[in-house]
Amino acid sequence: SQKIEQNSEALNIQEGKTATLTCNYTNYSPAYLQWYRQDPGRGPVFLLLIRENEKEKRKERLKVTFDTTLKQSLFHITASQPADSATYLCALLHGSSNTGKLIFGQGTTLQVKP
Amino acid sequence: DTGVSQNPRHKITKRGQNVTFRCDPISEHNRLYWYRQTLGQGPEFLTYFQNEAQLEKSRLLSDRFSAERPKGSFSTLEIQRTEQGDSAMYLCASSFAGVRTGELFFGEGSRLTVL
Known about the structure:
A: 114 residues; mainly beta; 0% helix; B: 115 residues
């Protein structure tokens, strides 16, 4: 069956360091992979999208990589700040899907300590 | 610009009661999705509309759940005879079908607590 896995353990890092979050998937052929940020009690907010033919995407302090051979995406936040503390969700749009339906991982909570 | 709006934000109800949530999507978006999220989990897909047509429903959506989107604008999600297991955050999201990348715009959610 199709499965998306993110590290369920919270990631605690020191301010200024680079945070790296992992998203692995099985039995998918995604056309796109997306990352969302979710703060407690709020809805997810879109951050970045990467296509299957792209290896890397950057936006300000964020960087996403996509390895379709390993079936893995890495999400990096450089020069992390306490304001980056949140839960980060990866989501896949199935390659054959015309519905726009996204399937989400369980999320990884990041805590950046000052 | 008024993003996706959901009401009520919080609902506490007793088991067996019916509840209804409303979602107003971004006005130019023709796709609308309902997701459910429990603590420590990612959002789980429930159902999806394109304009007024409900095109897909998850097996998670039992017959106690019904969703509508009359006239292709706002949507309602009704849960009948609520059970404690229905306690969750119900998220609505919208998108425009013409954008192939599938970015979803979420509302702030409606949190349901069933006592």
